[in-house]
């Protein structure tokens, strides 16, 4: 089990520069001077591979398969209409082995592919590519494209098996989450560009029904938007996980955008056709825009949020226990904050408790230690953003740089997608694998056990890291 450790002379020098009473997580501000990727990093983060993928702003989210004998990562390619497949057979020498682009890509309008997930069903492996094309061009009502990738490493066997159309929601699917439910089914949760009058915040598709050619592409349910509605679209991002303490499958919806003063909502989706609202995060001071990323800790007590607006938006940590215990109806105050830079925002989060891996936009890859959610701090970072590249446009804007991040639990390999510099693979000292039980928490993360389903029992013995060593004073 990986344990945080003290660093060497470089860390000591950095710590010596801290002001009294302040953590480096509060002080560290990445240089805004022109520099190449890698000029700002901590010595506990190491680059395994880097692959430039093409023109700036054409890279979106990333997904890595979890089985070591399937060493593949997928990167959604926005604006160019496709995805890139990367072989990690040798993580120190990754290579692109396949590229797919939609037909008549030059005629399509809008961002196009944004998110990418994989799932396994009946011994076969599938890739799901979410897309956001605007009306006025082809595929304006297209939400996602599904591919059979079982044949890998033989790329000649990759084939498209179907498309999920949602013409009543022009603009497609922004975010998708493939989930192995406790009822044994594999579901796709997709956030949609909702019209104002719709209560559908996220759609739910049974992936087996979809593959069998069921009507309406296997649509079986939706996760509602709480009243009152009025946002221009539904949930921004979606996350689903099983809580063994309550025997519930829980949906975490960030959003809707431009409404609810930063509203985020937790639903019980154990009965997939009858979701029940559990917790609302509303009217949080300083959160003046809709929800974005919204992910829980494996025990489902704490959540981390990022909002949609740019400017300074830290990762906020909330304790849901008062609402889950029925003491309050709404949570409206965080218990902790973290930021890599007090002038910037971050994008996506991957939780492998007690670590949070952050796609930090122009701050690159960031790793946060959050065993104590009231006092999270920077554990490591590696800046991937090429400030020195004169070809970069709108360099001063925040929504640039590291867009997506994912972690392979079996060996701790970290992968990231940067809007400008492409694909990255990293290793972190001491982090060679992750299993929640080793930390005293449920074995729950975004990675799915497609063969066995979610962890229904949780850990035996001490819970939530009881007895683990503290890390007081060791922070960047």
What would you note in describing this structure?
With 476 residues, this protein is mainly beta. The protein has one domain: YVTN repeat-like/Quinoprotein amine dehydrogenase (Methylamine Dehydrogenase, Chain H, 7 Propeller), CATH 2.130.10.10. Helices cover 4% and strands 37% of the residues. The protein has 4 helices and 29 strands. The strands form 7 sheets. A 5-stranded mixed sheet has the order 14-15-16-17-21. It has a 4-stranded antiparallel sheet with strand order 1-29-28-27, with no helix packed on it. Strand 18 and strand 19 (302-307) form a beta hairpin. The chain is globular.
Helix share of residues? Answer: under 10%
Q: Strand order, biggest sheet?
A: 14-15-16-17-21
Rg calculated over all Cα atoms = 21 Å
> What portion of the residues fall into strands of 2 or more residues?
35-45%
Could you report the average pLDDT, rounded to the nearest whole number?
Answer: 84
What's this model, at a glance?
With 476 residues, this protein is mainly beta. It has helices at 9-16, 24-27, 207-211, 321-324, and strands at residues 45-51, 62-64, 72-77, 82-87, 95-101, 112-121, 124-132, 142-148, 159-165, 173-180, 186-192, 200-206, 219-224, 237-243, 248-254, 264-268, 276-281, 291-296, 302-307, 315-319, 330-331, 336-338, 348-352, 355-359, 365-369, 377-382, 402-408, 413-418, 422-428.
Topology:
Elements: H1 9-16, H2 24-27, E1 45-51, E2 62-64, E3 72-77, E4 82-87, E5 95-101, E6 112-121, E7 124-132, E8 142-148, E9 159-165, E10 173-180, E11 186-192, E12 200-206, H3 207-211, E13 219-224, E14 237-243, E15 248-254, E16 264-268, E17 276-281, E18 291-296, E19 302-307, E20 315-319, H4 321-324, E21 330-331, E22 336-338, E23 348-352, E24 355-359, E25 365-369, E26 377-382, E27 402-408, E28 413-418, E29 422-428
Parallel strand pairs: 17-21
Antiparallel strand pairs: 1-29, 2-3, 3-4, 4-5, 6-7, 7-8, 8-9, 10-11, 11-12, 12-13, 14-15, 15-16, 16-17, 18-19, 19-20, 20-22, 23-24, 24-25, 25-26, 27-28, 28-29
């Amino acid at each position: 089990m990986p344990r945080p450790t003290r660093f060497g002379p470089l860390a000591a020098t950095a710590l010596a520069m801290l002001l009294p009473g302040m953590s480096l997580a509060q002080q560290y501000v990445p240089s805004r001077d022109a520099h190449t990727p890698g000029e700002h990093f901590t010595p506990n983060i190491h680059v395994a591979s880097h692959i430039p993928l093409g023109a700036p702003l054409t890279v979106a989210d990333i997904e890595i398969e979890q089985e070591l004998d399937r060493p593949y990562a997928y990167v959604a390619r926005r604006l160019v209409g496709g995805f890139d497949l990367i072989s990690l057979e040798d993580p120190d020498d990754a290579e692109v082995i396949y590229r797919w682009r939609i037909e008549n890509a030059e005629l399509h309008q809008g961002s196009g592919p944004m998110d990418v997930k994989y799932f396994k069903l009946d011994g076969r492996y599938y890739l799901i590519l979410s897309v956001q094309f605007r009306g006025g061009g082809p595929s304006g009502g297209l939400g996602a494209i599904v591919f059979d990738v079982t044949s890998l490493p033989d790329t000649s066997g990759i084939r498209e098996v179907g498309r999920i159309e949602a013409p009543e929601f022009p603009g497609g699917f922004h975010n998708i989450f493939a989930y192995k439910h406790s009822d044994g089914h594999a579901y796709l949760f997709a956030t949609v560009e909702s019209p104002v009058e719709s209560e559908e915040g996220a759609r739910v598709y049974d992936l087996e029904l979809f593959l069998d050619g069921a009507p309406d592409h296997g649509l079986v349910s939706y996760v509602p938007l709480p009243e009152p509605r009025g946002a221009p679209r539904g949930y921004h991002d979606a996350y689903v996980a099983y809580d063994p303490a309550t025997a519930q499958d829980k949906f975490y919806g960030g959003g809707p955008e431009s409404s609810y003063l930063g509203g985020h909502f937790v639903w019980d989706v154990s009965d997939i056709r009858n979701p029940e609202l559990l917790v609302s995060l509303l009217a949080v001071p300083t959160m003046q825009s809709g929800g974005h990323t919204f992910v829980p800790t494996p025990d489902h007590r704490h959540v981390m949020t990022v909002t949609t607006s740019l400017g300074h938006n830290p990762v906020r940590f909330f304790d849901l226990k008062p609402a889950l215990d029925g003491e309050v109806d709404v949570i409206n105050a965080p218990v902790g904050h973290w930021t890599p830079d007090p002038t910037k925002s971050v994008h996506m989060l991957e939780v492998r408790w007690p670590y949070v891996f952050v796609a930090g936009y122009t701050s690159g890859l960031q790793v946060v230690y959050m065993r104590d959610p009231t006092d999270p701090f920077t554990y490591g970072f590696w800046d991937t953003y090429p400030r020195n590249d004169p070809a970069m446009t709108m360099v001063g804007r925040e929504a640039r740089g590291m867009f997506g991040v994912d972690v392979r639990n079996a060996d701790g390999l970290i992968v990231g997608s940067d809007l400008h510099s492409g694909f990255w693979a990293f290793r972190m000292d001491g982090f060679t694998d992750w299993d929640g039980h080793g930390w005293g928490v449920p074995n729950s993360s975004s990675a799915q056990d497609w063969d066995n389903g979610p962890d229904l029992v949780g850990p035996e013995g001490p819970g939530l890291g009881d007895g683990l060593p503290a890390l007081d004073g060791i922070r960047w």
